[in-house]
Amino acid sequence: NPAAGGGVCGKRAPAPIDRLRQAGVKVDVVETRAAGQATDLVREAFAAGRRHFIAVGGDGTSYEIVNGIFSGPAAPASGGRPSLGMLPLGTGNSFLRDFTDQGAEYAIEAIIAGKLRPCDVIRCTHRGGALHFINIFSIGFVADVGA
Hints:
two-stranded antiparallel sheet; globular; alpha+beta
């Protein structure tokens, strides 16, 4: 998501992506151009059998990827469980801060080492469909302030 972090992500992303590749991590880069596009791209990739994703951006980018994984049609069973790595180059990055204060450096090392942690996914259904969350869900006053 090159727009994450006020556009800083697009400038900073190439170096850590190159570092992952140099360490042997196979990375295909797909840049988003609009809000919501990551959800659509991931939904298509997941249906095609992709299972490993890296959110390069902030919490909004990971939110869209999670929704792409969990909101699409059932994917082929042979692909295994999905994983989501995060390169925190966005503004808030609050989800990753729950695990470390070392930011992108920690994330790069964890991805290279193949470190995995299970994570709950919250599904909120409503009249228009469903939304999926991994770090925060707010309603009432907090949602009003955020809006």
